[in-house]
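Thread: Carnitine dehydratase, structure

OP (GT): Posting the sequence first so everyone is looking at the same thing. Length is 488 residues per the record. Can we get the structure tokens written out before standup tomorrow? I want them in the notebook alongside the other entries.
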Amino acid sequence: MQRYGHFIAGEYVDPIAGRWFETANPYTGKPWAEIARGDAADVARAVEAAVAGQADWAALTATARGKALVRLADLIEGHADHLAEIEVRDNGKLYAEMRAQTGYIAEWYRYFGGLADKIEGHVIPSDKAGVFNFTRYEPLGVVGMITPWNSPLLLLAWKLGAALAAGNAAVIKPSEFTSASTLEFMPLFAKAGFPAGVVNTVTGFGAEAGAPLVNHPEVAKIAFTGSDIGGARVYEAAARQIKPVSLELGGKSPNIVFEDADLEAAVMGAISGIFAATGQTCIAGSRLLLQRSIHDRFVERLVEVAGAARIGDPMAAETHVGPVTTPPQYRKVLEYIEIARNEGARCVLGGGPVEGAPGGQFVQPTIFTGVHNAMRIAQEEVFGPVLAVIPFEDEAEAIAIANDIPFGLAAGVWTRDMGRALRLSERLKAGTVWVNTYRAVSYTSPFGGYKRSGIGRESGMESIKEYLQVKSVWIATETSVANPFIIR
């Protein structure tokens, strides 16, 4: 099997304790590589390298840092096929989607490369006479980044592009289920001209490698993507050190269809929202809210289209639905299907594992009707191909149901009434609202959640300030001596 060490100070290194663990292909269920099992000693080594690397990186001009990021983007495009293949082997998602992602992530680095030398402070028109006051933005230092298993390189790009443009270094702890693509990505930084140590990766398990990264005193900030439970633990640990965090957490997003919508487009949007990526996405439209007047015919068409989805090899172009990535997640999805049945929801499609699947981690695309919003299937994130259909009467009830959850990551609205679209975009408590589309993201647009869906924003111009601290500078322009016992 292939073996991957940590990537520290520009080279692959073995774990200090000499421990390794296997990673399996979700499609076949068979191990294909060994990954370094890191601990606090490995994290300390990586942070030490990052501190040195950050000093070299910050010493470059902002323009030079931007050019390095643009060179990295060009290299990513040249290696996109290989990186996509590694991601499919590690997380089981469709090659078509992973290839689109690995090609597209280049744009995050190119965008933030262009933004690197446009971080500007301000001259402040002070009310104090005889002083010149201005602000400057400075990097935080070393940022710890903890990434999930569903889209490792894409969700890393959302953090890393902004952090590097701001002058920071990074220590990355990818999910233990999908570490290989991040490790394959690392050598491109040296090829792009980054100083050694600016970007490092330590692999392993949360308690052994993730916790020491969060708690390390020289890590200035943590950027985390994962579940709300995991995010709460990171937030609590960081708070003990007064350490800032960015948290992109879970969702239970409503996809709302009104009777005046283009119903065929809305059916396709509902399928994209929940069955693309096998439902393993934080923005999954896992609650489908249907106006009662169209409920039955919409569900009939939805079942017809979703029931024709082809399940199989994620590398095959004709496959629509691949395996669930991890064994624990596979078991969790099946448990929630049983929870929904026990709560009284009616399964109109799927409802169980795919028999005879190569790796045993395939779940049928599943649709439940007869759901009310107090059910666990409507309140808790499943993170799999399971859709809860909830009827509503009018706009007011749709908004009430949509907002009656602990999450607020995303929402979809399907209507031809632009007044309604604007009203809902204002009243829905979600960080992203899509109208007559779903699951669209861009490096130009901020992304993040309300409520338990997170803190902070990734992508877009706003996100770079998540990785900067502001300093106010006062310079006296007069020689007179002020009274030292009175605040100026």
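GT: Both are above now. Quick notes for whoever picks this up: DSSP finds 15 helices and 23 strands in the chain. Residues 2-249+453-472 form a domain with the Aldehyde Dehydrogenase; Chain A, domain 1 fold (CATH 3.40.605.10).
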